[in-house]
Amino acid sequence: MLTVALKGLAGRKVRALLTAIAIILGVAMISGTYVLTDTINSGFDTIFSRSYQNADVVISGKAAFDTANDEAVEPPTMPASLLPKIQKLPGVALAAGSVTTDALKLIGKDGKVISTGGAPSLGFSVTPAGQRFNPTKLTTGEWPRGTDQVVIDKATASSEGFDVGDRIGVQAFGPARKLLVSGIAEFPGVSVGGATFAILDQPTAQKLFHKEGQLDAIRVQSKAGVKTPQLLTEIKPLLSPTEVVRSGTAQAKKDKDTNAGGFISFLRYALLAFAGVALFVGAFVIANTLSITIAQRMREFATLRTLGASRRQVLWSVVIEAFVIGVLGSVVGLFLGLALAKLLNALFVAIGIDLPQGSTVFATRTIVVSLLVGTIVTLVASVRPARRATRVPPIAAVREGSVLPVSRWAKYGAATSLTVLAIAIAMVSFGALGSGIATGPRLLLLGVGVLLLFIGVSMNAKRVVEPLAAVLGAPAQTIGGAPGILARDNATRNPARTASTASALMIGLALVTFVAIFGAGIRSSFEDAVNKLFVADYALTSTNTFNPIEAEAGKALVGKPDVNDVTAIRAGSARYLGSNSDLTAVQPNLNKGVEMDWTQGSDAVPGELGLDGFFASKDYVKDHHLKLGSPVTLQFPTGKKTTVQLKGVWDEPKGGSPFSHITISTALFDKFTPRPRDEMVLMNTPGGVNDGNTARLDKVVSGFADAKIQTRDEFKHNFEAPINKLLNLLYALLALSVIVSLVGIINTLVLTVFERTRELGMLRAVGMTRRQVRMMIRYESIVTSLMGAVLGMVVGVFLAALITHALSSEGIVFAVPWIQIVYFVLAAVVVGVLAAVIPARRAARLNVLEALQYE
């Protein structure tokens, strides 16, 4: 049977290829995901390991907590006076200190901040004694030797046209300065992605970073024969509670885990989820294709049975075919993943995520997982068609028009399909709306429930094929005449086959519809919140709207002519009520820029906070059982603590606000934060928003290249821009599953054209033209695609309604983007047209006489 299966497969190369494409694309996504994330991981490894090259141990500030809301927290600095104490230790051969920041912006020749695409803008110092620890390498020029010099990264120099001897603007804390480019450097062997870096001499860096007399790290190299544990033992007694010493290797791992580890894992799992969707759709395509081919090979299987083949042998012949297709498709997909990894990276760069990368990593794990998953999915998808093949009776070898006998379980089909659908709806509903469920079980319920929902809808779809075809095929009947009527009838000839084909497209469009509605809900709730809160004329933010800006930029507006009611909202982190979270701070005149609905207190609350008060939202107060006067202890990253009391409660809009759970006064915030930054600064101007006022404000903050004046509408638009880019990325990733479903429609049409060869010949004989044949196939494809679109949109709307309702307390509302829905319908039509190209041409080229003689 092995020989028979392989020969049969070789005789159906085109069908095998069309079946394999579904697996190739899904496996390529898995392979591409692993290659991309492993390569990014390698890039981060290289950067962090090089940052501590030649350092046996590293002394750094010890923050009270490393992250808040998954964002890294800046650790406290240490006094520069610690360095000479370290240098005097008997086991120390060399020790050098440095200061760093992720807020050193480089300014292009156009006067604007050079965009990093969300990557950090790094600045660090170098000293002649510390060159041994310098992770970068000069490509041209020399290291900075004075307060007027800077070394910039090679990528920035190349893209922005800077050479040694040019002057470049830099800005950290305070107005921008022009420095002489003394050299250009790079991280050897790694791309830093969108990040920029600038290297300054230590006194200049300490002044620019507002760290005079302070250090961020001290790298230490031991004397010959001194082991790292011994060196650690010597150093520890000299350190304060806010300082820590680790080996160079441990510090590199710590930095990577804090700054990149979680994001890389999230990125990997997210992309693998999209690969899973593509493979899930591919399983539908494979099962449908094999079912059709088995129905068309009844005489072949019946002949094998007549010659003595057992049912098990017939089953194994189909499984072997699927196994070969799965293995070959997985191998092709594995190597296609190398190219897909580059495409995925290009997509991320396009939406502003440009991550560091090392040399391409093609790990053994990537090969094993890709081949195993692709092969197993193909085998699982082949089980049901293979079992159907075993039901072919030997008599079918001599009987024309034989059909497969129904399974003995067929009588339970309706009940089973409805039960699966009911269970799926129950699981998804309980997972989304159930209370008291932990995150893990909730996600499991939702994941399994959604999978069962797709399966349940697919199992029941054949029951709505006929009415859907009648409605969706009406335009084809009206426009196309006889070809349109035949196309509609062909779509209903085998409802199960049509439903299975449409279901593959249904999955992709259901997820696309869900993403569109969910994104519209986020935008709608955000806009509503901004409209309610934002009463100022203007806001000062960073150029990308998201990152905090230094407080000096907002202070520059205070007291300027025609600039009134300047009120800053600070942003930082703290530990309180058992969790590490964001912390915001406001000024007494907050009500001049933000309109708040106070349930306890009034607009006077911000002015009453002083050095011991805070306000919070009504929901947060309720969840944590607080009341006016309740004390809460705040711990800042420096480790210092203070106790504040609740002095006001307000009703936060569902769409969110610029405030964290707890908001204190800027006076208290600045007392515990060495380098405060503002989330935004609000202000009013005489006459409100007009071109003259905008120009005057722009001029006031012109010295701060990263500061941008925005109106309320501009603020909303700029804030939503990254959200829209993220949604476009999701659409692009989900497009892979749509492409797989497109292959499924092509498969079905190609196989049905083959199946209806004699019928097509008869139609041609009675006068149907080649053009009409193409029209008929095209209309049939469009009707099938529209069925998938309708089913997908119904499922997508259901899931979106459920999830948005579950997240209504987080401010997400249910909003249908009707224009996008229309686009999705048009996209389904395009998918139908594209899917019909090859089958329609094949059908139109059939020789009439040969078709009439076909058996």
- For the record, give the distance between the C-alpha atoms at the N and C termini, rounded to a whole number: 25 Å
Helix content: 40-55%
Report on the biggest sheet.
Answer: 8 strands, mixed
Mean pLDDT, all residues: 85
Proportion of residues in β-strands = 15-25%
Q: Can you count the beta strands?
A: 27
Low-confidence region ranges: none
Indicate the radius of gyration in whole angstroms: 33 Å
Tell me the overall shape.
Answer: globular
The structural class is alpha+beta
Number of helices: 26
Any overview of this molecule?
- With 855 residues, the protein is of the alpha+beta class.
- Helices cover 54% and strands 16% of the residues.
- Strands 6, 7, 8, 9, 10, 11, 12 and 13 form an 8-stranded mixed β-sheet that branches. Strands 17, 18, 19, 20, 25, 26 and 27 form a 7-stranded mixed β-sheet that branches.
- Strand 2 and strand 3 form a beta hairpin.
- Helix 2 runs antiparallel to helix 7 (248-296), helix 7 packs antiparallel against helix 16 (495-533) and helix 11 (413-433) packs antiparallel against helix 12 (439-461).
- The mean pLDDT is 85.
